[in-house]
Write a structure and sequence with these properties.
Elements (H helix, E strand, L loop, with lengths): L1 H12 L3 H24 L3 H14 L5 E4 L4 E4 H4 L5 H26 L12
Antiparallel strand pairs: 1-2
Length: about 120
């Protein structure tokens, strides 16, 4: 939630089409807790709404999903920490993969080259 909020704030300050891509990325980050809760078999709508409320009401909130108990918990108390270098590498790898997919899509969408008749003599 914190990363999605930060990306959304930066998107508001960014001009042009880049801001649309940043907003889509923020939306994708927002979907992660929903996907995690769904995969764990919990009510994702309830958990994510609780998580959003805690992040909205508490500055520097460290709340996250506690999948063992099916509730929102304090990640610091649970001992869940994330290394900056790991998070940075994860985001770089995801961005590179998305860029490669977009490049392949552009290649597939391109019209084929006009072919000329080669006459053999």
């Amino acid at each position: 939630m914190l990363m999605a909020t930060a990306v959304r704030k930066e998107a508001l300050l960014t001009p042009g089409k880049e801001s649309l891509a940043m907003e889509a990325f923020a939306n994708a980050l927002t979907m992660l807790p929903t996907i995690i809760a769904d995969n764990a078999g919990y009510d994702s709508a309830d958990l994510v709404s609780q998580l959003r409320a805690q992040h909205a009401n508490t500055p520097k909130c460290l709340a996250g999903l506690d999948m063992e108990n099916g509730c929102v918990g304090d990640m610091a108390q649970m001992g869940v920490t994330e290394s900056f270098s790991v998070k940075r590498q994860m985001l770089l790898s995801a961005a590179e993969a998305a860029e490669m997919i977009l490049r392949v899509d552009d290649i597939i969408k391109c019209a084929p080259r006009p072919r000329r008749n080669d006459e053999c003599m």
